[in-house]
Structure formats: structure tokens, C-alpha cells
């Protein structure tokens, strides 16, 4: 049986990589991928802890819920990216600076 | 053997994720993302979450990833031009900021884990281990999960179904073709 | 306390009686502008009438029936929702729809073609619902709710023609004055609750209720509670000096006025007093009788000098309400309720007839394009030639109001005055003033109602339009206006109330209510007083005939006393001057204070500051500015650097967010 610390270390690595992808990538799709990586790290934590809860199965159930949320987020996010692309003709977040005042 | 396999999957997931973020070609990155997800699914198995692992492959690989590649292809042309411009952006200032923050997170999380580990497991986990209420490799999780979904978590289940439906309708509404005159 | 099963049909009947108008209200509120016929309202009120009759038959002369269900619990006190049925409730429960049905039918013709008629039916149903609810509920809290609802519905109806400025003013006034009363009611409820811990009428006031068991209750509180409730009733039942809203409430449609005056609004106050009668001790009762007498006298005087046909009726209502209050005050609330019942019929009829007259005068005004007030008595006269049936009906109602024999008013008014005499004779000479004044008021009543009739229907027409017009626009009202009036006219006669036209003591209402009087009956008075009253009435009617019908008016209409009476002794002006202007004066004073003292101080201070600032300005330009300019340059330079953070790129924002999170984590872990 693998100790829980192993899982947590792996998930911390994936989490950090997700943050890096969000911050550094020059493509909105890759930002979305970064978000997915973070969510996957969270799911890994859920199942790792969920192993110690046979009565409620809380970890696994909420891992599945998180997955559904992630799928929804991807669907909406990609739709937004498509619209952004139609509007600006680019999906490089560096070139979309309408938030600037 | 078990530990070895675990490490193999962990290295697969982390390595491909590392490669994913450092590659500049988005198409390759997306395929590497597939490998990462696969590796993660493998890791789920070691936590005896077989159903979650299968769902991971089905939802992510079968749905999310396809959707991403699809979106990528729709916006591909401009992207290539983008890439040609910022050739040596590896040295760019923003990149180092990102590296600093993400490595900082990793260090802090690892440190926190290390501290937590030295404190020993939380009480509820110890209690469950004592009572034998932990999931074993021989357990059959799927019927249990089904029962839990339909009993204990039925409200959350219904809410999330509605939520997913709304998100999908919303997404398709946002993504539809605008009329030409707009 | 819980409902016994055989009564369940009764319970449903009560609920249906109360809720039918509510359903009509909701239905019409939902249908909005398209609900113009008023059929839902009429159907509902007729249904209520039928059910109420059934209930009355079941309840009459039975022990009180009480249904109660727990409503909500606040701390340790559970509040109940329930229904209390006794003879009093049964009587009123029949009376309200019985008056409301003719008014509804009358309204179909009277309000025909009005632009807001859908609102009219809606409000009318709400009004009936509120009043019916007020009658049946079993505790003071619920009663208060319906009490407010009655006030609110009357507010809506008085201001029904909201485009008229005077109507808006009138409904505002009615609402504000009723608020004073509501405050009294609320204080009364608070006192009761703090003393007894329950608001349940049955538990409080039944024969062996809490009130009769608690002898050691502080009489101060009891008096205070009684007076607080009486203030509530004063505002609703228009007692002096809170009566000022009622004459102004004439701005509403006449059919509404008749409903307000006869059965719903003003009756609520008297009903409240009768319902909680055991609460009142000697002191509170004395206050009630004095206020009642005062109201009866002043309102009768005011009525003498009014020219507006509706205002005369309004003052007569106030005066008659004064009678009822005296009836409650002397402990004979059965006679008060009896008078309320008889009064309801003839006052409703008076208003409906007056409405018909106004309606026709309005037609005339439109027909001849004239410019005159259709409600002013001075513009009428000789109308009986064109409206004989209306004249007869109105005359009949006026006779009832004046207390003429063979009418219902004779029975109830005599019963009331006799009781007052009996009450006073046990107490002393000063108390004799009250019945004496009541007799005077009764004669005055006869006089002004005769004046109204003679001025409107007899004599020669005063307007030039009446002469030489071939096809005259003034005629009898249509069937749907006339038949309700005929019905009410029949109800003004004695047989409905007592088989013996000259004595009320055996009428079914008085024996049904069976209130034990605190004073002994004096049989001699039962002959003496009616004959006195009749003589006085006949004399005053004769005088009025001389003065008004034959136009031999001996007094100066412009004399100060007459004007004072017309202006109701300047009570409105008094209110305006003391309350409104007083508050305005205080506000002006405060403004002056603010302007001259506070502002002066501020300006003085400002002057000082200005001087100091001039000095410092020199220092500033020459010494500080150098520093500041340096600082500004630094700030500009820094700002330029930080400005770049606001670059509109989402990833920089992400970076900032994650960095903050990171720092927060560091803090959490290492602190």
C-alpha cells in the first residue's frame, strides 16, 4: 500500500506545473490545460484521502463531482476562447489587453 | 513491485506535464496532456479509485481533450504566427516570474506536507484504520459508489447534473455563430 | 379548546364566508383591467351572505363556539389562530354582507363607465374580506391585522379617484388619523400581553376567563389598556377629536361612503369595544361615555350648518357613533350594537339615495354645461317632482335617523337613551347631563335631517336650469340602483327588529345579546322618554319645514356661529395651526438656528482658518513646495512603474493573485 504522502507529493508537483502553465503559456488553450492540471491534482488528493473513508466514500464521490465541474469549465472556457478568437483574431492572452484602463 | 509501478506512473505524469509546459508547440502539448491524464488515471488506481480512474480516461481523454484539440484547430492559423514572433521568450521576464511562483508553491506545499507527515495522520484517519474502514484492493467500489450517489449524495448529484446541463447549454449558446451583420 | 367534530361544517362555513371576498379580490387582481363587471365580487358577497346566515342560525343563542389552532411559537408563548363565534359575531357577520350586497348591486350602476372600475371591485372585495375577518377572529393579534387591513382598504377606496388632489389629501388624512388609533390599539395589545401573557379573546374575556379571575390586577394598567383600545376605536369610529377624517372621506365614491358609514369601517370600532367589553373598568367607561357625548353634540352642531349633502350625512354618522359610544360607556353595549344595526340600514340608504341625487345632479351639470357643485344643497330643491321614489326612500331613512316611531331608529335610539337615563339616575346630578345632551342631540338630528330633506326635495328649484327645460335629464335612478334602496328602506322599518313598534325591550337582538346591566330599569322612563323624543322631533321637523321648505329662514347664514359650525368649529384649522404649523414652526426655528448660530460659528471658524491659511500659504509656496515637488516627482516616477502592473493582460493578474496566495500560504505555515 502506497503511503498517502507519495500521492500528495505527486499532486503538489502537478499543481505547481499547472500554475506555471497558467502564468507563462502564450496560448489561451494552454491556460485552460493548466487549470485542468490543477483540478487533476485536486482530484488526486481527493482519491488519496478517500481511501481512508470506506463508510461515506466522500473522496471518490467528490472526485467525480470535481471532474464534472472541470468538464463544464472546459466547455464554457473553450466556448469563450472561440468567441475571443472570433473577436480579436488571436488567442494569445498577451495581446488581449482590453482590461487595461 | 507496487511501489515501482507507482513511481513509474508518477514519473510519467510529472514528466509529461513538465514537457507539456515547456514545449512551445501547442499540438504536441495537448498530446502530452493526454499522457499526463493517463498517468494520473494510473495513480488513481493506486488509491483504489478504479471508477474514478476510468471516468478520468473517459471524460478527459474522450471528451475534454478532444474538445481542446478541436478548439486548437479552429484557432490554429494565427497561433503559428504568434510562435514565430516570440522566439527567445524563454528568457523573458514574465517566464521567470512564473517559474518563481510555481516553484515557490511546490516548495511551500512540500514543506507543509513534510511537517504534516511528521505530525502523524489525522484522528479520523487513524480511527478508520483501526476500525478497518479503509478501502482495500479487494473491495468492489463501483456498486458502493452507485449506492452512495443515489442515497447520501443524491442532492449534490442532482444539483451537479443540472449545473452540467446549464453549462453545456451556455457553452453552446456562447460558441454559436453570430449573425453576419454583428 | 380544540374543535369538536360536529362543528366542522361550521368552521368551513366561516372560513368560506371570510375568504370568498378574498378570492374575488385575488381573481380580479389577477385579471386586472379586464375584470370590469364586478360579477365575481357580487357573487362572492352573496355567497358570504348566505353562508353567514347559515352560521348565524347555527350559532344564535348557543354557547360561544371556539376553534383554535396553534399558529407560531415565540419564545415560550404560543400564538393561536382561531375563530370565536358568539351572538355578537353572528349578528355582525350577517349585517356586513347584508349591507354590502345592496351596495355592490348599486355600484354596478353607480360606477358604470368609470375608468378604474376594475380597481373598484377589487378594493371593495378586499374591504369586505377585511371586515368579515375582523369579526370572526378570536385573538387580538389577528384582530389587529384585520383592523389594519380594513384601514388600508378604506384608504384605497377613499383615494379611489386618485387624480383628484382633494381625494389624495383625504385618504392621506384618513390613513394618518387611523394610525393614531392603531397606535392606541397596539399599546392596548402590548399592555394586555404583558399583564396576561395571552391575546386570546376567549381566554381573556369569557365568563370565567383570566380577567374575571385576576382581581389583584393593577387598576391603573387596566384603565390604561381600556383607554388605549378606546383610542383605537375612536379613530376607526370617528370620535371627537379624531373624527376629522370621516367628513373628508366623502371624496370617495358615494357607494363606498355608504359602506364605510354603515357596516364596515366605523362599525369596526364599536364592534371592538363590544368584543372586549369586560376589559373596561369604571374609569375607562366614563371616558368612553364622555367622549361619546361630546362627539354626538359637536357632530350634530356641525351637521346643522353644512351645505354638502354628503357632509351632513357624514356628521350625522359621527353623531350616531357618539350615541353608540355612550351606549358602550354606560355598560349597555347591547343597545349600542342594536343602534349600530339599525343605523347601518338607514345610513346606508341615506347615502345611496344621496348618491342617486348627486348622480342626477351630475347628469344635469353635464347636460346644461353648467358650473355648479352637484353635492351642494343650495343647488337643489324641489327634486321630488322628478325623483319621487328617491325622495320617499330618503325621507323614510331620515325619519329613522330622527328616531320617528314605527321606524327602526326609534327603537334603538330610545333604548339607548332610556338606558343612559337609568344609568345616570343611579349616579348623581352631574351624570344627568349626558342623557340630557343626548336628547338635545336627538332633536338636533331630527332638525338637520329634516333640513336636508326639505332643502333637497321640497320648495322651489334654486337653479335656473330647472325652469323651462322640456326633456329633463333629472329622473329616477335605474332599477339596479333603486331596488337596493327599496330593500334597505324596508329594513328601516320596525318589524325587522321588534314586533312591538313602541318598545324595544323585547326585541330579539337585545334579548339575544343579553348584557347584564349594572343599573336597574326604571319603567316610568320607558313611556316618558319616547314621548319626549317624539314631541321634540315633531317640533323640530315642523320648524325645519317652516324654515326650509317654505323658505322663511330667519337667521343670518353668514353669522359667525353658523360659519364656525360649518367649518366644524375650526378643528381642521386648529389641527393645521397647532400640529402642522407648530411642527413647521419648530422646523423653521431649527433652520434659523442652523443658519445663524451653527453656520455663524462655522463661518467664524472658516474666517480664522482662512487667515491662518494665508499665512501658511506663504510658507507653503516658499518652503514646503520645494519638498512637495520633489515628492510629487518621486510619486510620479513610482506610479509610472506600478502603472505597468495594470496592463490588461490576464496572466499578469493571475500572477498577482497567485503571488498573493503564495505569500498568504507562507504566512500561514511559518507564523
TrEMBL record, chain A:
Keywords: Cell membrane, Membrane, NAD, Oxidoreductase, Quinone, Translocase, Transmembrane, Transmembrane helix, Transport. NDH-1 is composed of 14 different subunits. Subunits NuoA, H, J, K, L, M, N constitute the membrane sector of the complex. It comes from the Bacteria. Its EC number is 7.1.1.-. It is an enzyme of class 7 (translocase). GO terms for cellular component: NADH dehydrogenase complex; plasma membrane. NDH-1 shuttles electrons from NADH, via FMN and iron-sulfur (Fe-S) centers, to quinones in the respiratory chain. The immediate electron acceptor for the enzyme in this species is believed to be a menaquinone. Couples the redox reaction to proton translocation (for every two electrons transferred, four hydrogen ions are translocated across the cytoplasmic membrane), and thus conserves the redox energy in a proton gradient. NDH-1 shuttles electrons from NADH, via FMN and iron-sulfur (Fe-S) centers, to quinones in the respiratory chain. The immediate electron acceptor for the enzyme in this species is believed to be ubiquinone. Couples the redox reaction to proton translocation (for every two electrons transferred, four hydrogen ions are translocated across the cytoplasmic membrane), and thus conserves the redox energy in a proton gradient. Belongs to the complex I subunit 4L family. The gene is nuoK. It catalyses: a quinone + NADH + 5 H(+)(in) = a quinol + NAD(+) + 4 H(+)(out). GO terms for biological process: ATP synthesis coupled electron transport. It is found in: Cell membrane; Membrane. InterPro entries: NADH_UbQ_OxRdtase_chain4L/K, NUOK/Mnh_C1-like. One of its GO terms (molecular function) is quinone binding. This is NADH-quinone oxidoreductase subunit K. The chain crosses the membrane at residues 6-23, 30-49, 61-85. Coiled coil: none annotated. It is a multi-pass membrane protein.
UniProtKB/TrEMBL annotation, chain B:
Pfam families: Oxidored_q3. GO terms for molecular function: NADH dehydrogenase (ubiquinone) activity; oxidoreductase activity; quinone binding. GO terms for cellular component: plasma membrane. It is found in: Cell membrane. It catalyses: a quinone + NADH + 5 H(+)(in) = a quinol + NAD(+) + 4 H(+)(out). Keywords: Cell membrane, Membrane, NAD, Oxidoreductase, Quinone, Transmembrane, Transmembrane helix. It is a multi-pass membrane protein. The chain crosses the membrane at residues 6-23, 30-51, 57-75, 96-114, 153-175. InterPro entries: NADH_UbQ/plastoQ_OxRdtase_su6, Nuo/plastoQ_OxRdtase_6_NuoJ. It comes from the Bacteria. Its EC number is 7.1.1.-. PANTHER family: NADH-UBIQUINONE OXIDOREDUCTASE CHAIN 6. Belongs to the complex I subunit 6 family. NDH-1 shuttles electrons from NADH, via FMN and iron-sulfur (Fe-S) centers, to quinones in the respiratory chain. Couples the redox reaction to proton translocation (for every two electrons transferred, four hydrogen ions are translocated across the cytoplasmic membrane), and thus conserves the redox energy in a proton gradient. This is NADH-quinone oxidoreductase subunit J. It comes from Rhinopithecimicrobium faecis. The lineage of its organism: Bacteria, Pseudomonadati, Bacteroidota, Sphingobacteriia, Sphingobacteriales.
From TrEMBL, chain C:
It is a multi-pass membrane protein. Keywords: Membrane, Transmembrane, Transmembrane helix. The lineage of its organism: Bacteria, Pseudomonadati, Bacteroidota, Sphingobacteriia, Sphingobacteriales. One of its GO terms (cellular component) is membrane. Gene3D superfamilies: 1.20.5.2700. GO terms for molecular function: NADH dehydrogenase (ubiquinone) activity; NADH dehydrogenase activity. It is found in: Endomembrane system; Membrane. PANTHER family: NADH-UBIQUINONE OXIDOREDUCTASE CHAIN 5. The keyword Transmembrane applies. This is NADH-quinone oxidoreductase subunit L. Residues 71-120 form the NADH-Ubiquinone oxidoreductase (complex I) chain 5 N-terminal domain. NCBIfam families: NDH_I_L, PRK06590.1. The chain crosses the membrane at residues 12-30, 42-60, 80-100, 120-137, 143-162, 183-205, 217-235, 256-277, 283-305, 312-330, 336-358, 390-411, 431-454, 481-499, 519-545, 653-670. The keyword Transmembrane helix applies. Pfam families: Proton_antipo_M (PF00361), Proton_antipo_N (PF00662). GO terms for biological process: ATP synthesis coupled electron transport; electron transport coupled proton transport. Residues 138-430 form the NADH:quinone oxidoreductase/Mrp antiporter transmembrane domain.
Amino acid at each position: 500500500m502506497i503511503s498517502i504522502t507519495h500521492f500528495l507529493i505527486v499532486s503538489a508537483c502537478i499543481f505547481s506545473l499547472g500554475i506555471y502553465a497558467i502564468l507563462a503559456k502564450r496560448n489561451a488553450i494552454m491556460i485552460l490545460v493548466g487549470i485542468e492540471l490543477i483540478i487533476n491534482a485536486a482530484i488526486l488528493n481527493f482519491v488519496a484521502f478517500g481511501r481512508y473513508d470506506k463508510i461515506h466514500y466522500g473522496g471518490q464521490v467528490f472526485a467525480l463531482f470535481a471532474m464534472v465541474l472541470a468538464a463544464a469549465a472546459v466547455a464554457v472556457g473553450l466556448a469563450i476562447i472561440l468567441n475571443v478568437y472570433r473577436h480579436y483574431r488571436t488567442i494569445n492572452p498577451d495581446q488581449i489587453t482590453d482590461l487595461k484602463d | 513491485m507496487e511501489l515501482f509501478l507507482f513511481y513509474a506512473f508518477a514519473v510519467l505524469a510529472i514528466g509529461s506535464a513538465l514537457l507539456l509546459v515547456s514545449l512551445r508547440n501547442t499540438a504536441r502539448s495537448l498530446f502530452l496532456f493526454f499522457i499526463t491524464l493517463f498517468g494520473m488515471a494510473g495513480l488513481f488506481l493506486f488509491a483504489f479509485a478504479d471508477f474514478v480512474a476510468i471516468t478520468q480516461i473517459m471524460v478527459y481523454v474522450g471528451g475534454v481533450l478532444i474538445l481542446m484539440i478541436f478548439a486548437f484547430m479552429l484557432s490554429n492559423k494565427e497561433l503559428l504566427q504568434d510562435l514565430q514572433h516570440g522566439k527567445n521568450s524563454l528568457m523573458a521576464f514574465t517566464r521567470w516570474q512564473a517559474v518563481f511562483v510555481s516553484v515557490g508553491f511546490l516548495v511551500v506545499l512540500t514543506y507543509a506536507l513534510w511537517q504534516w507527515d511528521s505530525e502523524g495522520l489525522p484522528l479520523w484517519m487513524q480511527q478508520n484504520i483501526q476500525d478497518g474502514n479503509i478501502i482495500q484492493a479487494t473491495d468492489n467500489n463501483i456498486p458502493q459508489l452507485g449506492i452512495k450517489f443515489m442515497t447520501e449524495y443524491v442532492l449534490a448529484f442532482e444539483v451537479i447534473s443540472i449545473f452540467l446541463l446549464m453549462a453545456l447549454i451556455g457553452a453552446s449558446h456562447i460558441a454559436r455563430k453570430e449573425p453576419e451583420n454583428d | 379548546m380544540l374543535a369538536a367534530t360536529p362543528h366542522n361544517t361550521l368552521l368551513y362555513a366561516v372560513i368560506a364566508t371570510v375568504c370568498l371576498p378574498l378570492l374575488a379580490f385575488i381573481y380580479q387582481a389577477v385579471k386586472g383591467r379586464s375584470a370590469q363587471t364586478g360579477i365575481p365580487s357580487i357573487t362572492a358577497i352573496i355567497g358570504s351572505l348566505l353562508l353567514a346566515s347559515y352560521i348565524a342560525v347555527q350559532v344564535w343563542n348557543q354557547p360561544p363556539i371556539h376553534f383554535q389552532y396553534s399558529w407560531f411559537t415565540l419564545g415560550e408563548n404560543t400564538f393561536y389562530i382561531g375563530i370565536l363565534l358568539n351572538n355578537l359575531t353572528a349578528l355582525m357577520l350577517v349585517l356586513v354582507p347584508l349591507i354590502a350586497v345592496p351596495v355592490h348591486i348599486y355600484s354596478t350602476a353607480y360606477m358604470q363607465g368609470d375608468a378604474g372600475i376594475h380597481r373598484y371591485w377589487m378594493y371593495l372585495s378586499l374591504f369586505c374580506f377585511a371586515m368579515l375577518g375582523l369579526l370572526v377572529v378570536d385573538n387580538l393579534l389577528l384582530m389587529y391585522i384585520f383592523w389594519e387591513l380594513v384601514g388600508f382598504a378604506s384608504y384605497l377606496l377613499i383615494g379611489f379617484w386618485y387624480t383628484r388632489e382633494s381625494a389624495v389629501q383625504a385618504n392621506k388624512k384618513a390613513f394618518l388619523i387611523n394610525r393614531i388609533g392603531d397606535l392606541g390599539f397596539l399599546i392596548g395589545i402590548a399592555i394586555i400581553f404583558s399583564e396576561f401573557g395571552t391575546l386570546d379573546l376567549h381566554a381573556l374575556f369569557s365568563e370565567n376567563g383570566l380577567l374575571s379571575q385576576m382581581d389583584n390586577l393593577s387598576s391603573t394598567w387596566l384603565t390604561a389598556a381600556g383607554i388605549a383600545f378606546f383610542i383605537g376605536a375612536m379613530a376607526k369610529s370617528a370620535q371627537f377629536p379624531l373624527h376629522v377624517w370621516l367628513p373628508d372621506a366623502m371624496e370617495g365614491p358615494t357607494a363606498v361612503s355608504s359602506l364605510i358609514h354603515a357596516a364596515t369601517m366605523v362599525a369596526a370600532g364599536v364592534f371592538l369595544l363590544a368584543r372586549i367589553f369586560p376589559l373596561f373598568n369604571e374609569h375607562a367607561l366614563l371616558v368612553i361615555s364622555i367622549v361619546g357625548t361630546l362627539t354626538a353634540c359637536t357632530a350634530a352642531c356641525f351637521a346643522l350648518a353644512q351645505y354638502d349633502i354628503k357632509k351632513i350625512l357624514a356628521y350625522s354618522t359621527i353623531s350616531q357613533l357618539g350615541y353608540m359610544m355612550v351606549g358602550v360607556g354606560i355598560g349597555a353595549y347591547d343597545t349600542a350594537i342594536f343602534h349600530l344595526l339599525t343605523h347601518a340600514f338607514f345610513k346606508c340608504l341615506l347615502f345611496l339615495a344621496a348618491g342617486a341625487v348627486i348622480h342626477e345632479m351630475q347628469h344635469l351639470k353635464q347636460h346644461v354645461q353648467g358650473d355648479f357643485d352637484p353635492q351642494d344643497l343650495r343647488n337643489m330643491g324641489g327634486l321630488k317632482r322628478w325623483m319621487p321614489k328617491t325622495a320617499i326612500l330618503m325621507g323614510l331613512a331620515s325619519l329613522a335617523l330622527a328616531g320617528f316611531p314605527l321606524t327602526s331608529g326609534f327603537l334603538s335610539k330610545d333604548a339607548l337613551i332610556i338606558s343612559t337615563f337609568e344609568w345616570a339616575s343611579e349616579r348623581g346630578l352631574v351624570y344627568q347631563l349626558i342623557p340630557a345632551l343626548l336628547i338635545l342631540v336627538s332633536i338636533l338630528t331630527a332638525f338637520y335631517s329634516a333640513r336636508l330633506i326639505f332643502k333637497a326635495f321640497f320648495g322651489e328649484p334654486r337653479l335656473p336650469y330647472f325652469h323651462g327645460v322640456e326633456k329633463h335629464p333629472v329622473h329616477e335612478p335605474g332599477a339596479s340602483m333603486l331596488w337596493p334602496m327599496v330593500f334597505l328602506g324596508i329594513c328601516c322599518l320596525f318589524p325587522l327588529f321588534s314586533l312591538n313598534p313602541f318598545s324595544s325591550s323585547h326585541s330579539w337582538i337585545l334579548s339575544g345579546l343579553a348584557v347584564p346591566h349594572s343599573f336597574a330599569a326604571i319603567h316610568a322612563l320607558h313611556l316618558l322618554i319616547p314621548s319626549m323624543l317624539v314631541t321634540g322631533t315633531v317640533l323640530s321637523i315642523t320648524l325645519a319645514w317652516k324654515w326650509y321648505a317654505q323658505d322663511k329662514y330667519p337667521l343670518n347664514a353668514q353669522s359667525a356661529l353658523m360659519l364656525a359650525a360649518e367649518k366644524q368649529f375650526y378643528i381642521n384649522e386648529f389641527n393645521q395651526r397647532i400640529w402642522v404649523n407648530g411642527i413647521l414652526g419648530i422646523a423653521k426655528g431649527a433652520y434659523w438656528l442652523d443658519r445663524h448660530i451653527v453656520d455663524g460659528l462655522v463661518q467664524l471658524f472658516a474666517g480664522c482658518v482662512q487667515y491662518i491659511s494665508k499665512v501658511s500659504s506663504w510658507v507653503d509656496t516658499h518652503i514646503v513646495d520645494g519638498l512637495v515637488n520633489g515628492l510629487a516627482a518621486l510619486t510620479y516616477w513610482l506610479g509610472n512603474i506600478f502603472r505597468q502592473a495594470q496592463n490588461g493582460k490576464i496572466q499578469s493578474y493571475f500572477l498577482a493573485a497567485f503571488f498573493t496566495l503564495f505569500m498568504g500560504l507562507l504566512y500561514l505555515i511559518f507564523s
